[in-house]
From TrEMBL:
<protein>
    <submittedName>
        <fullName>Uncharacterized protein (TIGR02246 family)</fullName>
    </submittedName>
</protein>
<feature type="domain" description="DUF4440">
    <location>
        <begin position="32"/>
        <end position="139"/>
    </location>
</feature>
<keyword id="KW-0732">Signal</keyword>
<dbReference type="Pfam" id="PF14534">
    <property type="entry name" value="DUF4440"/>
</dbReference>
<dbReference type="InterPro" id="IPR011944">
    <property type="entry name" value="Steroid_delta5-4_isomerase"/>
</dbReference>
<feature type="signal peptide">
    <location>
        <begin position="1"/>
        <end position="22"/>
    </location>
</feature>
<dbReference type="InterPro" id="IPR027843">
    <property type="entry name" value="DUF4440"/>
</dbReference>
<dbReference type="InterPro" id="IPR032710">
    <property type="entry name" value="NTF2-like_dom_sf"/>
</dbReference>
Length: 298
């Protein structure tokens, strides 16, 4: 775990998710979560001493990488370094549960996400034990574990609806475009086969591989056609719309760019269009919106 997550976890123990408590909320839970404002104020000020004061003197804090800090003094020093490294970080908190074991012991579980000033994100799951001492609630133990790592297949779930057979028929030109999306062996890529025919005669074939880029942390694709052209693109989602920004090379070596858009209209219908197209820097005609239907029987 990166050190600057420590203040984030502290604030998580008093998540705003619980800022509005139900009338039947146990007083122990209310007392612990009431620390919210104090944690937030101390965090905003970078007041390490105040934050460390919310830990019991003999508290234990175990980070997600297995390091254990014992005592509020050690935790305070670690937080001091955290604020030096993580200044300007933003915090997103999700508290899953707050359980009252006894009038003097409360267990809280949840997860945190910290976005650093440079945009880097880090997070962890946590379990915190609060104890009441001399009328004040203190953090006695804080244990973090890594967030589960999503597989490439899980990352592609947002576009898994494409899997299946799709068809677009232009009756005015007798042009038919058939696409077959399937999961590749292992389930970490989606493969698309495209077959273009004119009056039943093959005109063009194409292949596309859609996968998760762990470096860029986004979906990307690689497209090839039977004439020798190829392109690569990054996918950006906006609701049920995906913008695919592509750069490629045509069979003659010309450099191409395009912004293709796929919009899910229903489980059996989507729209495709292409704009901002260029060839060697020169503008090219856009491709107007085309509606594609799922093949019958699929």
């Amino acid at each position: 775990m990166k050190a600057y997550l420590i203040p984030a976890v502290i604030v998580a123990l008093a998540s705003a998710s619980f800022s509005q408590t139900a009338p039947d909320t146990p007083p122990e839970q209310i007392a612990v979560l009431a620390n919210d404002r104090a944690f937030e104020a101390a965090y905003e000020k970078g007041d390490v001493k105040a934050l460390a004061g919310f830990f019991a003197e003999n508290a234990q804090y175990t980070t997600e990488d297995g390091q254990t800090l014992v005592g509020s003094a050690a935790i305070e020093e670690s937080m001091r370094q955290a604020f030096k490294e993580g200044k300007g970080s933003k915090l997103a908190i999700s508290v899953d549960s707050v359980q009252v074991l006894t009038p003097d012991v409360v267990v809280e579980k949840g997860s945190t996400e910290v976005t650093a000033k440079d945009g880097e994100k880090s997070g962890a799951l946590y379990t915190a034990i609060h104890v009441k001492k001399d009328g004040k609630w203190k953090i006695s133990q804080l244990i973090e574990t890594p967030l589960p790592t999503a597989t490439p297949q899980e990352r592609l779930k947002e576009v898994a609806w494409l899997v299946g057979s799709w068809e677009d028929v232009d009756k005015s030109t007798a042009l038919t475009v058939k696409s077959e999306f399937t999961w590749a062996r292992g389930g970490n890529f989606i493969v698309r086969n495209v077959d273009v025919k004119n009056a039943g005669e093959p005109v063009l074939e194409g292949w596309q591989v859609i996968g998760w880029d762990p470096v860029e942390e986004r979906i990307r694709s690689w497209t090839f056609d039977s004439e020798g052209g190829f392109a690569g693109g990054y996918w950006t989602r906006e609701g049920d719309r995906w913008l695919i920004q592509e750069t490629g090379v045509n069979p003659d070596g010309g450099r191409t760019t395009a912004e293709n858009t796929i919009t899910k209209l229903s489980d059996s219908r989507f729209a495709w269009e292409s704009a901002n197209r260029t060839l060697d820097g020169e503008p090219q005609p856009s491709v107007e919106r085309i509606e594609v239907m799922k093949a019958k029987g699929d």
